[in-house]
Amino acid sequence: MRVHVVSDVHGAAEALARAGDGADALVCLGDLVLFLDYHDLDRGIFTDLFGVENTRELLALRNARRFAEARAFSGSLWAGVPGGARQAIEAAVRRQYAALFAAFPTPAYVTYGNVDVPELWPDYAREGVTVLDGQVVEIGGRTFGFVGGGLRTPMHTPYEISDEKYAAKVAAVGRVDVLCCHIPPAVPDLTYDVVARRFERGSEAVLRAIHETEPDLVLFGHVHQPLRARMRIGRTECVNVGHFQATGKPYVLTW
User: In what residue span(s) does the Calcineurin-like phosphoesterase domain sit (predicted)?
Assistant: First the structure.
């Protein structure tokens, strides 16, 4: 059995269409939307609406962790958008989702990232593309549990939920062979981004599940340039499957 795993697709529809080549199934750990591109300022919803200079200013504020100023700055720009921010963002996200869901090979098993908009997914999911969150599926005789989204941060991305709700989804999954999450367990080496030079939020609930249920594998993304891409916790191998938008290469899982 061969399964390809991707995370942090961020608009890379052409690469996504090739991500399942040679595999029996594709697993996607979320973050389909490209709102801001920290490496290419010409791309993303924000740049399309407000231009490169405004994008550069917003990213400078975020990178300096001046989050309140960043929200005030972006709010001043959104105030001038006809129909308001919500309408403009939803229209742009829908255009991206139409291309991305059409690109998914089948079968694909998909969960949400923290920048995704779950309420829109039913409009684009199709036969052979299974959306899972707090649920379990069997792939090739192994059980895969899926936990989507992220935890609350000063960034206020679209699908951030409380620690309690996130923990409830982890508990609902229970004991599985492979635990698939968007965010990593709360371990410093796995949550520190060496380029952004900051810690992203990891999940204490996932870390507890590792100690209590001992899955063979925990797969995740979210941290684009982690201090460590993989480590073992007890008998569980924890793997950051990589920043797919940057590499275009899936993580390959065989058994």
Answer: 1-226
216: left (phi over 0), alpha (psi -120 to 50) or beta: alpha
Write out pLDDT tens, residues 64-79. Answer: 889 999 999 998 998 8
* Radius of gyration for the alpha carbons in the chain, expressed in angstroms and rounded: 18
Query: Which residue, chain included where needed, has tokens 């080549």?
Result: 21
Q: What residues does each domain of the chain span? A: 2-254
Are 218 and 237 a contacting pair, CB within 8 Å? yes
Q: Find tokens 């899936």 and name the residue.
A: 250
Amino acid at 157: T
Q: What topology does CATH give the domain 2-254?
A: Purple Acid Phosphatase; chain A, domain 2 (3.60.21)
Residue 117, φ and ψ in degrees, nearest 5: -120, 90
Query: pLDDT of 12-59, one tens digit each?
Result: 999 999 999 999 999 999 999 998 888 888 889 889 889 999 999 998
| Cα–Cα distance measured from residue 114 to residue 10, given in angstroms and rounded to the nearest whole number | 11
Q: Say which residues have a Cβ less than 8 Å from residue 154's Cβ, sequence separation at least 6.
A: 65, 67
Which pTM does this prediction carry?
Answer: 0.92
